[in-house]
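User: Hello! I'm new to structural biology and keep hearing that structure can be predicted from sequence alone. Could you demonstrate with OmpW family protein? Please show me the input and the output so I can see what each looks like.

Assistant: Of course. The first part below is the input, the amino acid sequence of OmpW family protein. The second part is the output, the predicted structure written as tokens.
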Amino acid sequence: MKHLVATSKCCLTTTVLLICSATAASAQSEPLYSKGDWVVGVNAARVLTEEKLDSVSAAGAPVPGAALSINDDTTLSFDVSYFVSPRFALNFFGGVPASADLQGDGTLAGLELGVTDYGPAILSLQYHLPVTERADVYAGAGVGRLLFLNERDGAVTNFDVKDAWAPAFQAGLRYRVSGNWLANFDVRYVPFDAEISGALGPAPVEAQVEVDPVIVNVGVAYQF
């Protein structure tokens, strides 16, 4: 849903601004991590999508008035962080692929175009800022590879979505619950362009879709 995507983007932006405003105030705070620490997390993840069909053609001719929609989905994600310093960490993020059901809209209304499983593999650099002796906020940026798996035909046969590269942004909060156990909340934004191909009846079809997925994660992590 578009309002949920917008709210999640606002949450990410707010967290980044909190980090910027709190930097000076927390200059004397002790970091929660040390150089060489590993943190492994598992999360429940909600994938919220906002999409725009940039172009679509059948047999080389544009299809006027065409649009599509992609459903949101819930899945599991994981991430692994390695701290190169008390405040900077390299982070790898992945998870169980979400499912995307592409439904036609506009002149394509009523058509299930195809279904695919997909998910990002993201490598990023994080900056962690302690705000109390038990909690820190963090922000990061990096690059992700969107992988599309197990494509299934709908109205479009030989349905195929090409893998894509994407920038990746994140902001979040970790709270030390007890010992090495941490609670985690973060929001990740991974915008990408999808190239879709297949056939609608006898006509070859090609489409370009601009997708703005926001991934909201809530889970636990363990510090080694």
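User: So the tokens describe the shape?

Assistant: Right, they're a compact way of writing down the 3D structure. Reading them back into a model, for example: The longest helix spans residues 2-22.
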